[in-house]
Write a structure and sequence with these properties.
Helix 5 packs antiparallel against helix 11. With 316 residues, this protein is of the alpha/beta class. The chain has a single domain, classed as D-Maltodextrin-Binding Protein, domain 2, CATH 3.40.190.170. Strands 1, 2, 3, 4, 7, 8, 9 and 10 form an eight-stranded mixed sheet that branches. Strands 5-6 form a two-stranded parallel sheet. The chain is 45% helix and 19% strand. The protein starts with a strand and ends with a helix. The structure holds ligand 6CS. Ligand 6CS binds next to strand 7.
């Protein structure tokens, strides 16, 4: 049998190499009885089309960014809250691995829509790109910020004074080039690999958030599998957590160096000071109330639980 595994990224990028490695492991473990065909982003439409493809069973597996389910699985937008997860990417991954709020409660919310998240993992800290250099909240005044399809991402950037605009990443390079949008957020590996640095003069290392992806399966398909096959998928997903953590770390650090040394497309790399981060954090915190009151369907219970779990890991 063959399973189709879609990703939102292309050859060499973190999500795609994840699917390739996953496929390799499953094939080895089953002596080739099960093969997985990884799909690059593009062939199956936009990211939201891909969400629909997983839901209707056109594909069995997907790496999915919660931002693209923002208009459907309300609670999944929790990842759009800035300054929620710790600055340390390691600690963030530890929370993603162990959190009951995410791996049990949020998972159930996705399952109501036919999507089963088997694991949450980071693709690295997100950075801001722009032409003028984003350093303080006033730099976001009227700034046309590209976001994914998530009302909470919209709210998070409105809090800084920006005008957010939802776009698929396939349209992003051209939109940045033409000035349809002024900037965007993504992990450094993605900014460089998608060549956004060619059409943006600066990248701000803001550490305001992490890019989180989910390994997902079609719920009915997965539930209908024999138990030993489910176990095989679960075990492989768990093994992959360490593997993908190292892979994103490698890509993010290598591409940061390459970006700094790229004389053909010079990019100024700006690191926010603690004081500057504090200014953003102050504006970002009230967005949690917006999440509780306007987004959450369970009065922010998942957020409250997650906040406690984060405290337990960071000790703060
Ligand atoms: O910005 C985006 O929408 C894209 N960013 C990443 C890191 N992966 C896929 C996603 O669609």
């Amino acid at each position: 049998q063959t399973w189709r595994f879609i990703t939102e990224e292309t050859e060499g990028q973190v999500q795609y190499v994840y699917a390739q490695e996953f496929a390799k492991r499953i094939s080895e473990k089953t002596d080739g009885a099960i093969t997985i065909e990884p799909y690059e982003y593009g062939g199956l439409g936009s990211e939201t089309d891909q969400v629909a493809a997983l839901q209707d069973g056109a594909v069995e597996m997907a790496v999915m960014s919660p931002g693209f389910t923002g208009n459907m699985v309300k609670e999944g937008q929790i990842f759009a809250l800035h300054f929620l997860f710790p600055e340390s990417v390691e600690q963030t991954q530890e929370i993603l691995n162990t959190s009951e709020a995410l791996n049990t409660d949020l998972k159930a919310k996705y399952e109501e829509h036919g999507i089963t998240p088997l694991a949450f993992w980071t693709e690295g800290a997100t950075a801001w790109s722009s032409n003028d250099g984003l350093q303080e909240p006033s730099d976001f005044d009227g700034f046309k910020m590209r976001i994914q399809e998530s009302p909470l991402m919209q709210e998070s950037y409105k809090a800084y004074g920006a005008s957010p605009q939802a776009l698929s990443w396939s349209e992003l390079y051209t939109a940045l080039d033409r000035g349809t949008v002024d900037g965007q957020e993504n992990p450094v590996f993605f900014i460089y690999d998608a060549s956004f640095h060619e059409v943006q003069d600066t990248v701000t290392i803001s550490n305001h958030n992490n890019y989180v992806a989910m390994t997902t399966v079609n719920t009915d398909w997965y539930n209908g599998l024999p138990e030993h096959v489910q176990k095989l998928i679960d075990e492989t997903t768990q093994e992959m957590q360490d593997w993908i953590f190292k892979e994103q770390e490698r890509q993010n650090s290598e591409y940061l160096e390459e970006m700094k040394n790229d004389t053909e497309n010079p990019t100024e790399v700006i690191e926010l000071t603690e004081e500057q981060r504090a200014e953003f954090k102050e504006l970002a915190l009230p967005v949690r109330d917006y999440y509780r009151e306007e987004i959450s369907t369970v009065n922010g219970e998942i957020l409250d639980k997650l906040v406690e779990e984060i405290k337990a890991v960071t000790g703060e």
